[in-house]
Design goal:
Elements (H helix, E strand, L loop, with lengths): L22 H4 L5 H11 L12 H17 L11 E18 L2 E2 L5 E5 L3 E4 L6 E5 L5 H11 L2 E6 L4 H12 L2 E3 L7 E6 L8 E21 L4 E11 L20 H21 L4 E8 L7 H7 L7 E7 L14 E2 L7 H10 L6 E2 L13 H5 L5 E5 L21 H14 L1 H4 L21
Parallel strand pairs: 5-6, 6-8, 10-11, 10-12, 12-15, 13-14
Antiparallel strand pairs: 1-2, 1-7, 1-9, 3-8, 4-9, 9-11, 13-15
Bound molecules: zinc ion (ZN).
Zinc ion binds next to loops.
């Protein structure tokens, strides 16, 4: 799950309010042994935190491919194997110098998000000027600029210096883009000044291409081949922290985030392949690069017709008991389609339910790969059990196998295998998401 910009926020939810049922009374669809083996490997130190662009994430991709092969999935039409490889553009800031009203601005009071290779602005006609006074909402103004795209200079009152520094650090990490369709820049200047008489802005960036890989396997439908049910999770994580002086743990294992979801889709694939009676086509996608901007799902969504996707079950952080109890799961965006309601009808006879996201303020609907498909109208939701408000391991090196509750995780996967039967057999079709009610991607950062 993505960290939210500046503030650390995040979550998902579905759940059952009744006393928890034992696995045996619920079902016996998912092999505990196979699940344990998959998560143990994917979360192991051997994979060094599965960072996007690393060699280690390729080893993880190979493992997932092998599992899909053993299970008997087939590649997407037109692909020779399970790997869906593509490139993205990385843009790193190199230089930035601003002189405002005849005075050079010190580097610590400057920040920039730019997809332009070179900036050489000499007058105010070359960009739009924004003045963010001490009572203005800086976050909101930047978000509006980002939605509109284009070229901008923002003069920001020092009252916002803390937030300014947050954005400055974030932008300094560079930008990644699936395409350079929207060329634009925001240059931020922390200053008491509120108007521009003369200005000079000189900046440059280094633009490079790098490859990434999703792993996608298909179980073709027996009757409604055209209709797709998508099960997904992201298999990338944060890599390693800079090595400390002592022998501290430097590997971000991402056991919960999101080796747990990746393990779930592998084992759901195994279950439905054994069952071999799926009316609809089932697609299992392990996405790359979620943590750095959701590029795996964004590329994937352009390789098929989103109208064919009946539902997306995105699984994020299910390795620990939810606030509704062990084995319970919740979903994001419950009110954006009737998927949750339909799934719960299926769960009623099992005396369980999927809960609504208990952390609406965390914006979790937008913080995982489901949002990309939802923007295209797909009833696309994330299913999770994380207690994000309390989780001490979120995006820490301590998010490792030892911190998980495998029994609880197993029960969540069992629940999802039961809850989604109606999607698989074609008996339920959720309403589409209203795309007008969903925020788009920013154009600059
Ligand atoms: Zn994450």
């Amino acid at each position: 799950m993505k960290r939210s910009l500046i503030k650390y926020t995040a979550t998902l939810a579905v759940s059952l309010s009744l006393p928890f049922l034992s696995t045996s009374s619920l079902a016996n669809n998912i092999s505990f042994e196979s699940m344990s083996q998959d998560i143990s490997y994917l979360a192991s130190d051997q994979l060094k935190g599965r960072a996007s662009f690393s060699e280690d994430i390729d080893v993880a991709a190979q493992y997932i491919s092998q599992r899909f092969d053993e299970i008997g999935l087939v590649p997407l039409a037109g692909n020779k194997n399970f790997k869906q490889t593509f490139s993205i553009t990385s843009i790193m800031p190199k230089e930035l110098a601003v002189s405002l009203n005849g005075q050079a601005i010190s580097a610590k009071n400057l920040g920039m998000a730019s997809t332009l290779e070179q900036i050489d602005w000499q007058n105010t006609q070359e960009f739009t000027t924004h003045v963010i006074g001490k009572d203005d909402n800086m976050r909101q103004v930047l978000a509006q600029i980002n939605q509109s795209g284009g070229k901008h200079v923002a003069l920001i009152n020092p009252a916002h210096s803390k937030l300014f520094n947050g954005y400055r650090r974030y932008f300094a990490q560079g930008l990644n883009k699936l395409s350079l369709d929207h060329q634009g820049a925001i240059v931020m200047v922390l200053t008491e000044q509120t108007s521009i008489n003369t200005i000079k802005v000189n900046a440059s960036t280094a633009i490079t291409k790098q490859t990434l890989t999703n792993v996608v396997g298909v179980l073709p439908g027996k009757e409604k081949k055209q209709e797709i049910v998508l099960y997904s999770a992201h298999y990338d994580h944060l890599g390693t922290a800079p090595t400390g002086e002592d022998n501290t743990d430097v590997i971000y294992n991402g056991a919960d985030d999101d080796a747990s979801g990746t393990t779930a889709i592998i084992n759901l694939a195994q279950y439905f392949a054994n069952k071999a009676d799926n009316a609809r086509t089932l697609m299992f996608s392990a996405f790359t690069a979620e943590e750095i901007g959701g590029f795996g799902s964004r590329y994937f969504s352009k390789q098929l017709n989103p109208d064919d996707v009946v539902a997306m079950i995105n699984i994020e952080m299910i390795g620990k008991p939810s606030k509704f109890g062990a084995g319970n799961v919740w979903m994001t965006g419950m009110d954006r389609s009737n998927l949750g309601q339909l799934l719960n009808e299926n769960l009623k006879m099992k005396n369980t339910q999927i809960y609504a996201d208990p952390y609406p303020k965390q914006n979790l609907f937008y913080r995982s790969d489901n949002a990309t498909l939802a923007r295209l109208g797909v009833p696309a939701h994330s299913f999770s059990s994380t207690q994000l408000d309390k989780d001490q391991h979120y995006h820490q090196t301590s998010d490792d196998l030892a911190s998980l509750d495998l029994q609880s995780m197993h029960q969540v996967i069992e629940s999802l295998s039961i809850a989604t039967h109606g999607l698989v057999d074609g008996s339920i079709t959720p309403t589409r998401v209203d795309v007008n009610k969903i925020k788009g991607h920013g154009k600059i950062y």
